[in-house]
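EI: anyone free to look at a 493-residue chain?
SC: sure, send it
EI:
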Amino acid sequence: MSDVIERIPGYSDDMMHKWCLTLQRVVCATKEVKSGRGRNTVVRTVLKSPTHQDVIDRINRSVEFYNTESNMEFKYRDYQEEIIEQANQILSDHRFVYLGMQVRTGKTLTSLGLAEVRATRHNDVENVLFLTKKKAMSSITDDSDLMCPSYTLFVMNYESMHKLPSIKWDMVVLDEAHGMGAFPKASKRAKQVRDMIKKHNPFVVLMSGTPTPESYSQMYHQIYGIPTNPFSKYTNFYRFADDYVNVTQLKINGRQMNDYKKGRSDILKAMKPYTINYTQKEAGFKVDTKEHVVKVKMSDKTYELCKRLKKDEVIEGKKEVILADTAVKMMIKLHQLYSGTIKFESGKSIVLDDSKAVFIHDNFGDKKIGIFYKFVAELEALKAVYGDKLTTELDEFNNTDKSIALQVVSGREGISLRKAELLVYYNIDFSATTYWQSRDRMTTKERLTSDVYWIFSDGGIEESIYKAVTKKKSFTTSHFKREYGSTSGASIR
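SC: here you go
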């Protein structure tokens, strides 16, 4: 007999807890029974419904097992406590710290713990603003509720910064800070954060598992709004680049342009006094990620369209047009077509071939999985096949037996898919950063193995992209031209 009652399909921990409490009330209900007469009358309390003790014990264990509130006792890991102390000293010295902690090592709890230290030990933090991605907001709130902090926490996604209340922020936590790393010009997000820091002068905690995923030059705009940053003497990125970037020339559409990607390692050296790095290996993770490449035969129509597009560079229908008159367009259109979808010149997207969606459902439909898709129409194909057994919301995924579908770029950061049995990729992104970050979404310290399935079309473009990103190189038009240039139209440029 199982130690606890098996979960009812579709029931969350809370629902199972309530169900087990009902069973507990039934099997433990008692009544009084009298025996004897007169002075010899004896009143005994007995179960209303006599039940074997093993069954009662199993129900009692189930009540305790599914009571998530009692099971969620908060405790820092030893290394988190050490990092909090180190970060606290850096904040005292410089007013900002960069937590370069790899995914699943507990950046969120560490940052919240750092805020708690400032609030209780130094009394200089009362209001904390935590900026993150929209999908990560609920998990951060859950972590905070678990801690019962001494400060007031406000969690907001970057896109909604304009909706922030008029409050004096004592500390600002910038989750996935590398998202502000655009260069040579600052992104809108980086400018908004800079302006807020200027207004409130808060302690600043930046966090990322990959602070500079594609270029060291990405560091500048992440911190340029912080008065005490090591590059504050530079009035803009270009003056910073004079000293820290090996500027090269790049030819784009016939014009010579400066390329600032070759930032020097001196950038990281300058950031060292402000940075705490921590790896999964240091945290004791021993996860074996097993990747499986599976090829799916697409419909004859899909291969016919791809062949025609490569030959003619354009396909005209009665109402819509597929145009691929440059290498970039050809690369993107083939990427879509080989996975069964297309976005027309009009902007409309449709599903042409659901072979991948059907394959995923037929082979993984009985499992609770995380599915990453690339293009919007791919989600529509999945929804059509999965029906109501698929969600796009993390809370629903965590509390039901449904699988979840996430866009691979937006879902690669700030969320945990620890409840997924495995990950399945409907398609693959061109970015090496997306590859390395998204495949770690299942990782936990307790999980020893993780299975990742890549669903590629037989004869498609996906395998070429995979070979590039696994070598930590993004798949570019240069890769595409080398591998497909000879089969593309003569005017592809």
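EI: The first strand starts at residue 30 and ends at 35.
SC: 👍
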